[in-house]
UniProtKB/TrEMBL annotation:
This is Nicotinate phosphoribosyltransferase. Residues 426-535 form the Nicotinate phosphoribosyltransferase C-terminal domain. Catalyzes the first step in the biosynthesis of NAD from nicotinic acid, the ATP-dependent synthesis of beta-nicotinate D-ribonucleotide from nicotinate and 5-phospho-D-ribose 1-phosphate. Helps prevent cellular oxidative stress via its role in NAD biosynthesis. Belongs to the NAPRTase family. Coiled coil: none annotated. It catalyses: 5-phospho-alpha-D-ribose 1-diphosphate + nicotinate + ATP + H2O = nicotinate beta-D-ribonucleotide + ADP + phosphate + diphosphate. Its EC number is 6.3.4.21. Keywords: Ligase, Magnesium, Manganese, Metal-binding, Phosphoprotein, Pyridine nucleotide biosynthesis, Transferase. One of its GO terms (cellular component) is cytosol. It comes from Macrosiphum euphorbiae (potato aphid). Pathway: Cofactor biosynthesis; NAD(+) biosynthesis; nicotinate D-ribonucleotide from nicotinate: step 1/1. GO terms for molecular function: metal ion binding; nicotinate phosphoribosyltransferase activity; transferase activity.
Amino acid sequence: MSVDESNNVHTRLQVHNCVVQPLLTDLYQITMAYAYWKSEKTSDTAVFDLFFRQNPFQGEFTIFGGLEECLRFLENFNYSDSDIEYLKTTLPPTIEQSFFVYLKELTAKDVKLYAIDEGSVVFPRVPLIRVEGPLIVVQLLETTLLTLVNFSSLMATNAARYRMAAGDNVSLLEFGLRRAQGPDGGLSASKYAYIGGFDGTSNLLAGKMFNIPVKGTHAHAYITSFSNPSELKTKTLINLNNGKEQDLIDLTLSWRTTLSNLLHISESQASDGELAALVSFAIAFPEGFVALIDTYDVNKSGILNFCAVALALNDLGYKAIGVRIDSGDLAYLSNKSRETFVKVAKEYNIPWFANLTIIASNDINEETIWSLNDQKHSIDCFGIGTHLVTCQRQPALGCVYKLVEVNGTPRIKLSQDGSKITMPGKKDAFRLYGADGFALIDLLKKSVEDTPIAKTKLLCRHPFDQKKRAFVVPSEIKPLYKVYWENGHIMQRLPELKEVREHVKESLRTIRPDIKRNLNPTPYKVSVSDDLYEFMHELWMRNTPIGELS
């Protein structure tokens, strides 16, 4: 990496959440660090794997997020004077003062971090991140790395699932800040929803910080704050056709009377307050007019008032954008609205009017979108909040950070629960592809093994079931790990958010449709090499106590 590239990376990483610091951790990390230090383990080295055991949302894939934030954390890893003073008051008085001196001098310069590219599709048990370095330091990183990866990956995966449900031709907007788990949760949700496939956010700070497109309309409060067109103090708008000021209210009222007959909607049932609000908003945003039309009644008031304002704008040379529906039967109301737009377009020979955007919100979740698809809706854009940003269907991913090697010697954690047995030692991960371009299987090998070669027969084994094994002849093999941090520096160019977003799409395209489907998806296979299998089970047997009957 050149000096210029290094400087660019450094500059980008200065956008750093000050909450993400060494004290954003669990107490037991510090108490273990002291016990290690007391045991004179300051020269010991270790390897930890960060991985998860089960895909979220009853699915069979996950999107890896949070890597850049982990690297920011490493770059800024250092205990401040105030951190040390706080720890002195919190830890037992028996802690030796020289430990605090040691702690104050710690940095991540001797840490080496391998990782899968952010935005990649990943699977259970394949380490997302491998951390190597001084035992005490890499132990102290655990909690913070987990909190940075867990929600980011969960959120990106949730967003990707919404994108797959909606399809490529429907826009998705994240509207969840007000329902998010606090300010940091809201910002993270906006960022990783965009990475996962959303097109924009209502969150202005996220837009500023992460360069995400910001979108929004208005609330029901804006509509209900008006009572009658007569109360409007600003009533005119410049006619783009002749440059003259023209009364938009009179023009809109005239159109409403005309449309009332065409659409068979009684003008007396339409809300004058709603009309006044829409005219006011149109005067403020004539070239970006999107109206909320469900405050009173979509079919009896909202659609009539909107079309009247939109046609008045059209007379003055402006094109309305569309409507938002925030309640009711979204499939039915969207179809009725589309029918109305098509009818008006034909009647007045305004082709673009038929394609006005219909935005739907109202507590939408993934299942709602699938149901609306079945009902053949006419929605162009979904605004999604609560279920997206809080991941209500599954609030946690469950990543873990497990010790797999100390001083070059592999370590294994055993458990009566087979899913919690770790795979020991330093490992490399590879993705094997078939001739059709789809991923066949992920393969874990000991790092000392030879790199697998494409178009050769490879024995792939289930990590824990000796009966499950298969020969695979991959057309292509891609190593999953890159060195992202070494000698106190970031070693790879960090992609922009848009690039990570594109990588999510590309990575998902390599996964078979049956693995990504919503109902009863096919599990993707993760395997180990024969050498790793034999080594792991030999170590397993060596560390398992032998029972005794008497």
